[in-house]
Amino acid sequence: MNNFSYTQASTAKEATGIRKDQPAAAYIAGGTTLLDLMKANLEEHPQLVDINMLPFKGIEQTKDGLRIGAMERMSDVGEHPLVKEQFPAVSESLLLAASPQLRNMASIGGNILQRTRCGYFRDAAFPCNKRVPGSGCPALQGDNHNLAILGTSESCIATAYPGDLSVALAALDAVLTLENAKGKQRRVPVTEFYLLPGNTPQKETVLEPGELIVSVLIPATAHARRSTYLKVRERASYAYALASAAVGLEVQGGTIRSARVALGGVGTTPWRSPEAEKALVGQPATEATFRAAAAAALRGAQPREHNGFKVELAQNTLVQALLKVA
Amino acid sequence: MDFTEQSFFETNPQAGSVGQPLDRVDGRAKVTGQARYSAEFNNLPGLCHAVLRTSDVAKGRIQSIDASMALKQPGVLAVLTHQNLPKLAKTPNDPEGKKAIGAPMGFMPLTSDVVHYAGQPVALVVADTLERAQHAAALLKIQVTAEAPIASYEDKKAQLFDPEKVQDGKTKARTVRGNPQQAFAAAPVQLTHTYDHAINHHNPMEPGATTAHWEAPDRLTVYDATQGVTRTQKALSTMLGLSAEQVRVVTKYLGGGFGCKGSSWPHTVLTVQAARAVGRPVKLALTRPQMFTSMGHREDQTQTLKLGATRDGKLTALIHEKTSTTSPWDNYAEPNSKIINILYECPNFEATYQLARANVMTSTFTRAPGEAPGSFALECSMDDLAYQLGLDPLEIRLRNYAEKDPSTGQAWSSKSLKQCYQRGAELFGWSKRNPKAGQTRDGRLLVGWGMATASYPVHNNQGTARVRLYADGHALVQTGATDLGTGTYTVMTQVAADSLWIAPDKVRFELGDTKLPTAPNSGGSVAAGTVSSSIYMAAQDVWQKLIKVAVLDKKSPLYRAKAADVEVKQGRLQLKSNPQKGESYADLMKRAEMSDVEGNGQGRYGSGYEDAQAAANADPTKKDEAGNHSMHSFGAHFCEVKVDPDLGTVRVTRWVSVHGAGRILNAKTARSQIIGGSIFGIGSALMETTVRDPNYARYTNASLADYHIPVNADIPDMTVEFIDEKDPYINAMGVKGIGEISMVGVAAAVANAVFHATGKRIRSLPITPDKVLATKPMQV
């Protein structure tokens, strides 16, 4: 880890101002992912700007839905009664993630920006196009057991976002509010926030340099109320998903009126599946429908040597999640 | 001395505390942070910190190391590389040196420019703070000419060869008993199956750690995370050209070892060299990623087991072949075949080992080395045999029950396996098992039951202890043993207390220091039996000395009695023929103005099965008798799993282990140790795998986030029992040790339960969801 200076910012303007003067500085909230990356010499920052004092707090009901401040902690949001009641998938995605200690520290904004667990990214001894653009991707011919099968490119097959929350947020049409150095705010849906790797896997989100995540807005809907998050992993807790599914259904008289589907652990980004949703809406809420939707969701999958199992696993995960809310 | 008669359970039947679930005597020190581990001796004057810089590539030559940036950093004291590190008096780089040192690996990093494996230490940076050392280490510019490495025996470039011996020369690479090929060919039932085992790492919570302090140019004290202070002392003194007496090694507390701390690895002597280079005490603690390339591992391996049997399920032939990866220098393979040779009655047996050299460090013993993967192959094939013949898996094992050691024909010193089967089955409810696989459900989940046999040898060993009994009823008991965290402090306190007829809280027990009487490495399940017997024998020495004083003391009621006619009961010296006649040791010592009396003892462990000559260290008068016995612990595991047929996830939902392992010294710590070993085995069965990239020969998941070991949520309530077993041959205390056997057979019990649940026979560990989904059910 390199030496760095530490500054505590009390306003967004102060924080973004420092970043403007020192572009290599990084914001730090819970620090649960940033410090790991710095200790492993994967990221170097001469300065850290502590944004925990920023007023990006609160879990509030608005007329459209729920607004969650980016500085809220994973555990507080996951356990919040409004979240549990109106957005079960969001609550479950948070509480199935990491460990209690990490959830108590990690912020919502930081969770959305956590970086891949690809072993080649996480070890500076390997080449990695995401870390060192143009250096190559050993995962293509190497250990790709828990890497992506959707949205991949010849440059990168990492599940760039390895976590859970954004999968639920992508499914439920959540929108992020971002703020830049000029104090200007803009809104970006979670589904448009993450970028496919293409030839530039180092560019992971639409966040501009210095821009901050202020809050998350999740619209209150019938399918959000009837949502769930199912996570499959190699041990019962404290593991990243091999595959996961965030789903929400609105069912009337046995027919699906609206559906939301996103997959985790299989895409290079939180993988919203309009194909699956299309296969669900207007159909009877039966296992046959869900199987057809699952097949549609994985249709474009491009598995590699060790992750072919994810095609079947992701389909089954999606079906089980849909059965749970049907 | 006739140790059958003198053994503990005969002479001390009213033992007050041995066997009782005494709370850990070191528990308070540990939970309050008073217990100091090897990286916690921070008050040494001028202590500074060393950080290893390791090789990115797995094969190549170091062209240059530019330390200029690192050396400019504030607080940096030295950058040590192969270019400037003073030569060691002896290195393990040649076979003679390796043997003299007792090194686990025939290669010492930083003695040349050659890189043999990824993670090999190439430089050591010393600074006044840890952070400065870490930063400076990252600033080193190391140029290496890289070559394409060989990653494993599966690598196309790898060349398989037939070694003469494996496991550092301890095991012959080919063993034949009877006429196995012919017997297999003639067998009415033939099974041939291949079993793969992933690379596993020990991952103790406490990493490898060394604090080295040169108190004078010829006096070194090393606080080291080791399972054996004496072995480390030998390694260091030999490499440094010092006498053993000039090197003191201290290990007061150890945060687990599981075999990786059973030998002295390069980082320890490098820390010592760094301390000499900077003239200050130096501390080094390996990072978690470095733990994957610094202290060995369980090697990647494949086993093929051919099993021949009669139609009624009697084994006629077992043919075992193992192929595994080893380092560029050593012929290491854990001896899987040994348990296959002894577990069941079978007249024909063959085992061979094949190796391939790759760019990896040498693998080493990992809990139940050989027995764990060997039992996985054998116990899955036995399960197959049971299903194929329509027999209960327990019945197939009873039909092949070995009444004597099939490998030598020797009688067992003791064996309670039938009782283990019976009690385990009873506790588990095995009789209610559905004989058909894939038929039991709990909602969507498939439910399966599996069982497997466990066994582990009693290895040949010896150790010494010193007991000082004070006239006021306190005692100081000392031995250079190590407590891995399993309860050595506690059980030895109990043994000393009962041997001296005093309460445990009157015993002060010290261990983990080469200044104390020499004890063996804590490994191979030898510590409990050897150390307890040493203490028991030392206490007997105390009593014999007091008896001599009494019979010469005119004022003693025992004056002029024959020493042989005097016994000690409840701390009272008395005539065997007339117990009324005698006195307490306190009275005697007070009158004789003795403040204390000191005794020494040597605990002799029985013979290991690898040495059929047996009992080299056993009591000479009993040597032949003891030597004619095969000495093993036995046990049985019963496991229930629930498998999600859609998601491929396996959860262990019930667990029963019953073991017959001689005298159990403490019901609580023993139960905990069996639980720990079973969890270790469940980890290897369901999730533990270190992945080595096939092109770079470098691990891709060297962290505890990505190398999965079980968490609490993976483990159900576990039932553990012991069969009351008295073994008169193994040692004075009748203790066999339980650290290793706790893991043997565990993976097979889990795999057999998965088969019973799903009809899927998964012969590759770990059994992860991808394999469960990809495997087709067997037609049985």
From TrEMBL, chain A:
UniProt keyword annotations, A-Z: FAD, Flavoprotein
Pfam family, one: CO_deh_flav_C
GO molecular function: FAD binding; oxidoreductase activity
Domain FAD-binding PCMH-type: 1-223
Keyword Ribonucleoprotein (UniProt): no
Protein name: Xanthine dehydrogenase family protein subunit M
Protein source organism: Hymenobacter metallilatus
From TrEMBL, chain B:
Keywords: Molybdenum, Oxidoreductase
Compositionally biased intervals (Polar residues): 1-17
Pfam families: Ald_Xan_dh_C, MoCoBD_1, MoCoBD_2
Signal peptide: none
Region of interest: Disordered: 1-20, 597-629
GO MF term list: iron ion binding; oxidoreductase activity
Record domain Aldehyde oxidase/xanthine dehydrogenase a/b hammerhead: where: 32-148
The keyword Oxidoreductase is annotated on this UniProt entry: yes
Residues passing through the membrane, by range: none
Keyword Transport (UniProt): no
PANTHER family assigned: ALDEHYDE OXIDASE 1-RELATED, XANTHINE DEHYDROGENASE
Protein name: Xanthine dehydrogenase family protein molybdopterin-binding subunit
